[in-house]
Amino acid sequence: MPDRYAVIGNPVAHSKSPWLHAQFARACAQDIEYMCIEAPLGAFPATLDAFRAAGGRGANVTLPFKQEAFLYCASVSERAREARAVNTLVFDRGEPWGDNTDGVGLLRDLETNLRFELRGRRVLVMGAGGAAQGVVPSLHSAGPAQLVVANRTAGKARALAVRFKGTTGCGYDGLAGDTFDLVVNATSAGLAGELPALPSAQELFAPGALAYDMVYGRDTPFLAYARAAEVRASDGIGMLVEQAAESFLVWRGVRPDTRSVLAALRRG
Ligand code: NAP
């Protein structure tokens, strides 16, 4: 019997995680099965209980349950504690244990795949929802010269930023006059074809800057805004692959090579 894993979310049918983990399992000779489970809103803990009772060894968690997953765990990793959100659950070591691989997934995509060195750079994170919460601790620990969190609801950006020394939070109107080497769009605005109320790209981006949209699988107004200013731009597909590889490592003790999988996804 293969070991059972799943991604749990709502909606979740679109998830690329089953395909990704099937590639990793084949490459690493691991006997696993990995399915999609849509948990009804309000029934996330019951869905997890049922999956564990059916022999589930671990699970990924996606929108909108990452904070609920954090509360479900008996204990969590340091990086999940900092993010206050869990995207990777482990069930086969006693009580449920939680981890968060989003931050390391972004860092690996930036530093290894895109060869963008974070130390000493000026970094802006747009958004203060679950995705921003997941990546701000890792970005902070990478030693940027400046880390700013901006959000439509400015109070949420300030509440997130205050937890990380030297980090500031503001609304988009608070960005006037600031220039960044890296701008990470961790909002869901692109899913609605919208662009947060940013200053002009010429003001926002330093020469040689990178624009990174965590949304993947579509062109977004933020990517178009960056390209129009001739700024290097990347979607979030590499982060998706890298956070999945880190979950696989947590579960199976082996890190899959991500290059061929990422190349296949980029080819479409
Ligand atoms: P979330 O918790 O619902 O937060 C949404 C965020 O987007 C909030 O900060 C919200 O601002 C902002 N927002 C939404 N519409 C906006 C608009 N029209 N203008 C300005 N800001 C807007 O969602 P999430 O979990 O953070 O996810 C955000 C995105 O990241 C999603 O698209 C998700 O697919 C992507 N993501 C990608 C990966 C990856 O591996 N590549 C991993 C995780 C997430 P307010 O607070 O003001 O409402």
Keywords:
six-stranded mixed β-sheet, 12 strands, 11 helices, binds NADP nicotinamide-adenine-dinucleotide phosphate, 268 residues, 22% strand, single chain, alpha/beta, six-stranded parallel β-sheet, globular, 38% helix
Q: Which helices and strands, and how do they pair?
A:
Elements: E1 3-9, H1 17-27, E2 32-38, H2 44-53, E3 56-61, H3 66-72, E4 75-76, H4 78-83, E5 88-90, E6 97-99, H5 102-113, E7 122-126, H6 130-141, E8 146-150, H7 154-161, E9 167-170, E10 180-185, H8 201-204, E11 205-213, H9 221-228, E12 232-234, H10 237-252, H11 259-267
Parallel strand pairs: 1-2, 1-3, 4-6, 7-8, 7-10, 8-9, 10-11, 11-12
Antiparallel strand pairs: 3-5, 5-6
The protein binds NADP nicotinamide-adenine-dinucleotide phosphate.
Structure, explained:
- The protein has 268 residues and is α/β, with parallel strands linked by helices.
- It has helices at 17-27, 44-53, 66-72, 78-83, 102-113, 130-141, 154-161, 201-204, 221-228, 237-252, 259-267, and strands at 3-9, 32-38, 56-61, 75-76, 88-90, 97-99, 122-126, 146-150, 167-170, 180-185, 205-213, 232-234.
- The strands form two sheets. A six-stranded mixed beta sheet has the order 2-1-3-5-6-4, sandwiched between helices.
- Helix 1 packs across helix 10 and helix 5 (102-113) packs across helix 10 (237-252).
- The structure holds NADP nicotinamide-adenine-dinucleotide phosphate.
What is the percentage of strand-forming residues? 15-25%
Number of strands: 12
Main sheet properties: 6 strands, mixed
Mean pLDDT: 97
Report the total helices.
11
Q: What Rg is obtained from the alpha carbons, in whole angstroms?
A: 18 Å
Question: What gap, in angstroms, lies between the N and C termini?
Answer: 32 Å
Category by helix and strand content: alpha/beta
Instruction: Flag low-confidence runs.
Output: none
Helical fraction: 25-40%
Kindly report the spatial arrangement of strands forming the biggest sheet: 2-1-3-5-6-4
Global outline: globular
Chemical compounds bound to the protein: NADP nicotinamide-adenine-dinucleotide phosphate
Pattern of helices and strands: EHEHEHEHEEHEHEHEEHEHEHH
